[in-house]
Specification:
This protein is mostly beta strands. Among the domains are: 134 residues; 189 residues, no CATH class. Helix content is 5%, strand content 52%. It contains two helices and 47 strands. A hairpin with a 2-residue loop joins strand 1 and strand 2. The longest helix has 18 residues.
Length: 510
C-alpha cells in the first residue's frame, strides 16, 4: 500500500507541474486551508491496515441488531458506534440505521455481506469521526438503500452520508441506491482505492465536497438530476476537485455532467466511459487536465467545458451534439476572454455533430500530440472557432468542417508549424490522402460527416516543399481509428492537386 500511495503522489505531482503553466488556478488552489478542519486529514498507508483479531462485530438480524462491542449502543434498529476502532458489519437490516458518532480517531468498518435499508432516512450515517474507512471484504456483496422521502431533510441527505473524511478499500462489492438525493456523499473528502462500487441516485452519484479521488476499482455511477461524480467546494483553497488516478469507471447522468468540479477535474490514469447527453462529459469552473488514461465520452452536449482545458497525454474520444471542447469563462463574450485550450500531448478524437469541434472564447495552443476533429456538416458551426489566437508549434492536427464562407478559421499565422487549408465541394466523406514529393505519407483521413474544408498541420509540412492530395482509393493494413489511418498502405486514389507550401498557412482548393 505504501508503494502504491507513493506512486499516486508522484503521478499527481507530475500532472500538476505540467499543467501549471497555462493557468494560475492550480498554484492558487493547491495550498491547504487552515480554516478547514479537514485540512489535516491526509491519506496515510496505515489507514488501510486491518487487524481482524481486534475487530468487533455488529450483526444485522433483519429487524434487530446485536454486537460484541461495548462501544456500540443499540436502540431498536439503530446501532451507534461511539469509539474509534475496527468493526465487522454483516447481515440484513430491513429498516434501520448505522450511525458513527465518535469524538476523535479512525473508525474502520468491514462490510462483509451487509444489507441495509431505511424507510424514513439514510441507513448509513457517519456523523462524526476523524476518518471513516470502509473495507469491502473479499468476495462479499453489500448494499445500502435509503428512503425516497426523509423525515428530516437537513442531515443526512444521502443514502451513505458522511460529515467527515471517507475512504473505500477492499475487493468486495457495494451497491448504493440514493432514492432521496445522492447515493454516496461526504461534506469532506472521499477516496476510492479499489472495490466494485455501483451507485444509482436521484441527484448526484458520488459527491466529495472537498475532493473526490478515484485511485482504482470498478465504479459504476448513474445520476439523475445531478452529476455522476462531483466536488462542489467553491470557497476553501485547495479543494473542490475530482481526480482519477486509476480504475475502470462507467459514468452516466440523464440531466447533468459526467464529472463536475468547482476547481478542477484531473484525469491521470484509468479507463473512463462517460454518457451525459444533456450536459458535459467533463466540466469544471476553473480547469480540466487530462494527463493520461483512456477517456471515452460516448454522449454529451459538450464533451469538455472549462475556462482552461489541457491535454498532456492519454487517449480521449469525444462524441458531442454541440461543441467537442469549449474553453470559456461563460460570460457570453464575443471578444477574447483569455480562456485557453491547450493540446500538448496524447491522442484526441472529437466528433461534434452540430457544434464547433474546437471552441475557445480565448486562445488555442497546440504543442504536441494528435488531434483528429470531425466538425459539423452544416454552417454556421465550424471545425475550429476561437476569439484570440490558435498557435501551433507541434503535433498533428486534422479538422474537417462545412462550407461556412468567411467563418472558416485555421491556425494563426503567428504559429511556428505550417498548416494547409483545403477547400473543395468534392471532399464530402471521401478518403483524403496527402503525401510529399517522395511519396511519404503525411496523413490518410476520412471525414465521418460531409465536409467542405480540411485544416491540416504537422511537422511534415515544410516551406517550399511540394505535396499532393488524393481522394478516394483504399487503405490496407494498419489501423483506422476515428477516420485516421496509420501504419498501412494507401493506393488507387485520384490525384486532385499538387501544391507548394508558401506560408505558415497555405490555402489549397480543387
Amino acid at each position: 500500500m505504501r508503494n502504491k500511495f507513493s506512486l499516486f503522489i508522484a503521478i499527481y505531482a507530475l500532472g500538476l507541474s505540467v499543467a501549471c503553466n497555462p493557468d494560475t488556478v492550480l498554484s492558487n488552489d493547491d495550498s491547504s486551508d487552515s480554516n478547514d478542519s479537514s485540512a489535516s486529514q491526509t491519506e496515510q498507508a496505515s489507514d488501510y491496515d486491518w487487524n481482524s483479531t481486534s475487530a468487533e462485530t455488529i450483526t444485522l438480524n433483519t429487524t434487530s441488531i446485536s454486537t460484541t462491542s461495548a462501544n456500540v449502543t443499540i436502540s431498536g434498529t439503530t446501532a451507534t458506534i461511539t469509539k474509534a476502532g475496527s468493526y465487522i458489519l454483516s447481515g440484513n437490516l430491513t429498516n434501520g440505521q448505522l450511525i458513527v458518532k465518535t469524538d476523535t480517531g479512525i473508525v474502520k468498518i468491514m462490510l462483509n455481506g451487509a444489507t441495509m435499508a431505511n424507510s424514513s432516512t439514510s441507513p448509513f450515517y457517519i456523523k462524526s469521526a476523524s476518518k471513516a474507512i470502509i473495507f469491502l471484504a473479499d468476495g462479499s456483496t453489500n448494499s445500502v438503500s435509503d428512503a425516497s422521502t426523509y423525515a428530516n431533510s437537513d442531515e443526512p441527505n444521502a443514502s451513505l452520508f458522511s460529515n467527515t473524511y471517507l475512504a473505500f478499500t477492499g475487493t468486495g462489492s457495494l451497491t448504493v441506491k440514493g432514492n432521496y438525493n445522492d447515493a454516496i456523499s461526504s461534506d469532506d473528502q472521499i477516496i476510492i482505492n479499489n472495490g466494485n462500487i455501483t451507485v444509482t441516485a436521484k441527484d448526484d452519484g458520488i459527491r466529495g465536497k472537498d475532493y473526490l479521488k478515484v485511485n482504482g476499482g470498478t465504479i459504476k455511477a448513474t445520476a439523475g438530476t445531478g452529476h455522476a461524480l462531483k466536488s462542489d467546494n467553491s470557497t476553501d483553497a485547495g479543494y473542490g476537485y475530482v481526480e482519477v488516478n486509476g480504475g475502470n469507471l462507467t459514468l452516466s447522468s440523464t440531466s447533468a455532467d459526467g464529472i463536475h468540479a468547482k476547481k478542477r477535474v484531473i484525469i491521470n490514469d484509468g479507463k473512463l466511459s462517460i454518457s451525459a447527453p444533456a450536459s458535459q462529459g467533463l466540466r469544471s469552473d476553473s480547469l480540466v487536465v487530462v494527463n493520461g488514461g483512456t477517456t471515452t465520452i460516448t454522449a454529451s452536449n459538450e464533451g469538455v467545458e472549462s475556462p482552461i482545458i489541457t491535454f498532456n497525454g492519454g487517449t480521449t474520444d469525444i462524441t458531442a451534439s454541440d461543441d467537442g471542447l469549449n474553453a470559456t469563462y461563460g460570460n457570453g463574450s464575443e471578444s477574447n476572454d483569455n480562456s485557453l485550450l491547450l493540446i500538448a500531448g496524447g491522442y484526441l478524437a472529437i466528433s461534434a455533430k452540430t457544434g464547433d469541434g474546437l471552441d475557445s472564447n480565448g486562445n488555442i495552443k497546440m504543442t504536441g500530440g494528435t488531434a483528429i476533429v470531425h466538425g459539423p456538416s452544416s454552417q454556421p458551426e465550424v471545425g475550429i472557432d476561437y476569439n484570440g489566437t490558435f498557435n501551433i508549434s507541434g503535433g498533428l492536427l486534422m479538422v474537417s468542417g462545412p462550407n461556412s464562407g468567411n467563418m472558416i478559421q485555421t491556425t494563426s499565422t503567428s504559429s511556428s508549424q505550417y498548416t494547409i487549408k483545403i477547400t473543395s465541394s468534392s471532399i464530402g466523406t471521401n478518403l483524403i490522402h496527402i503525401e510529399d514529393a517522395s511519396g511519404t505519407d503525411l496523413i490518410t483521413f476520412k471525414p465521418i460527416r460531409s465536409a467542405y474544408y480540411l485544416v491540416f498541420s504537422s511537422s511534415g509540412l515544410k516551406s517550399g516543399s511540394s505535396y499532393s492530395i488524393y481522394t478516394g482509393g483504399t487503405y490496407t493494413g494498419g489501423t483506422t481509428i476515428n477516420g485516421y489511418s496509420t501504419e498501412g498502405t494507401y493506393s488507387g486514389g485520384t490525384l486532385k492537386k499538387t501544391f507548394t507550401v508558401s506560408g505558415i498557412v497555405t490555402s489549397v482548393s480543387f
